[in-house]
Amino acid sequence: MTEYTNLTKEDIKNKKIAAIDYGEKKVGIATTDIFHITFNPIATIENNEKLFENILRIVKNENINFCIIGFPNRTNNLESPIHKKILDFRERLIARSNLPCYLYDETLSSKIAKKNMIEAGISPKKRQNKQNLDKFAAMIILKNFIEETEG
Q1: Which of 6, 45, 53, 145 has the fewest CB atoms nearer than 10 Å to its CB?
Q2: 30 within a domain of the structure (yes/no)
Q3: How do beta strands 39-46 and 26-32 pair?
């Protein structure tokens, strides 16, 4: 069983945070400001040989203090193949960035992101674009993390 973050409100105070929605083909990234008021779906990037280079560029440009990585919670507590890939990705990101990276439950983030895109009036064509969905899912992960941590 994988442990999730147990950060407190004080731990994240005045910190700029990035959330990552890891996928085998694409990776969505969202950020928040240091006051945790705005949530920005920054990018969806290809999961290829330039993945870490692209993430590190965003981390540097956005002055990120730490990352939250979406990790699907399973009710049966069994790990799936994607779990191992996310854990490996996390370890490699920590090694390359020297940033703390925490796991956070991403259950239903894509479904909620799609619903929010509809409510925001985003056209069906843009909603069907998986790149938009991935970065909005990262934003949902980040928003849920902030709300849960700050109370």
Answers
A1: 6
A2: yes
A3: antiparallel
